[in-house]
Design a protein that fits this description.
Length: 328
């Protein structure tokens, strides 16, 4: 059984660098962004996620490059997963925009502390009795992402591969190995059928697991109806073994200061969002309503984002004042 790994964000267009490192430095500004998502409110141990990104463009040997950092933290019940990564992007003029190639390298810190979990069937039934035991575990794995994108004045598109090396981790329990490298669980099935009194636990049926590789496509454009109103449709497709996610968004922006719109996610529901841009500071809020899955029994999901932009020209040397000799 393989669960979904990558976390969905309602403001996914504000986190393009998380999904694709080639979007680092896309605005020719220094940017710092924070997203916080509280999913499935009203359900005990509901997931909470925080993403912090920072990126900036720079010139080296008369070529445009970009660098960035990503910090991600995910709390889902007894799971405590975090990521710290660095990004590099090479930007090359192409047509009326830029062709970008990006790489991201980092370390995932995986932690699982369930305490004691045991699931046992009815001893009185003349059938198989199953027992599941789960143990505390933690560890670190190396992670690598890569992506390519094209960014123009009124449109963008990119494709990326996350967890390209499918980081692997061992699955052992304290009682078997004496340590827990990354994650840990054991499953035992005892034959309680008549005539069988040997109730020895079996070894785990899986001693190895991995973070699944996923491929992501994201694209969007600006449609200018009349000044100062713009329509910005955006789409994100993510596929990994056994799961494909589709997110579509219609975003309205007025005078480049106020925004709002609606998103739809396949197999989940929809979200409404709003935001504002006050000079160098951007912020927004989204509320998701779930029509399927576990989320339909919740009171929805809530998400906030905050971004601060700094003009990169502050790193350029100021032009020195001078007088023309013709005026002397």
């Amino acid at each position: 059984m393989q669960a979904q790994w990558n976390a969905p964000f309602s403001h996914y267009w504000m986190a393009k660098g998380y999904y694709n490192p080639s979007f680092a430095g896309e605005d020719s500004q220094i940017r710092a962004t924070v997203l916080y998502r509280y999913q499935w409110t009203g359900i005990k141990n509901a997931p909470q996620r925080m993403l912090i990104t920072g990126d900036m463009p720079f010139l080296f040997h008369n070529r445009l490059h970009a660098a960035g950092v990503v910090a991600y933290y995910d709390v889902s019940g007894t799971f405590r997963n975090s990521l710290l990564a660095a990004q590099y992007c090479l930007r090359q003029p192409a047509g009326k925009g830029f062709l970008n190639i990006g790489l991201q390298a980092g370390v995932y810190n995986l932690a699982f502390d369930p305490g004691s979990i045991s699931i046992t069937g009815d001893h009185t039934q003349q059938d198989m009795r199953g027992t599941v035991e789960v143990y505390r575990a933690s560890g670190k794995v190396f992670d690598l992402n890569a992506g390519i994108s094209w960014i123009g004045d009124n449109s963008f598109a990119g494709i990326s591969a996350m967890h390209t090396g499918r980081p692997r981790f061992s699955v052992f329990s304290d009682s078997i190995t004496g340590n827990t490298p990354i994650a840990s669980n054991t499953a035992s099935i005892t034959d309680a059928s008549p005539g069988n009194t040997n109730y020895n636990d079996l070894q785990p049926n899986s001693t190895d697991s991995f973070v699944p590789r996923s491929y992501i496509f994201i694209a969007g454009c600006n449609i200018r109806l009349f000044y100062p109103l713009e329509i910005k449709p955006i789409v994100l497709l993510e596929t990994e073994p056994g799961d494909t996610q589709v997110l579509t968004t219609i975003r309205l922006e007025y005078d480049k200061k106020y925004s709002g719109g609606i998103s739809w996610r396949k197999g989940d529901g929809y979200a409404i969002f709003t935001g504002a841009n006050l000079e160098d500071l951007e912020f927004g809020y989204a509320c998701s309503f779930h029509s399927k899955g576990m989320g339909k029994d919740s009171r929805g999901s809530h998400e906030l984002y905050l971004r601060y932009n700094i003009s990169s020209c502050i790193f350029k040397s100021a032009r020195q004042p001078h007088k023309s000799i013709r005026l002397l």
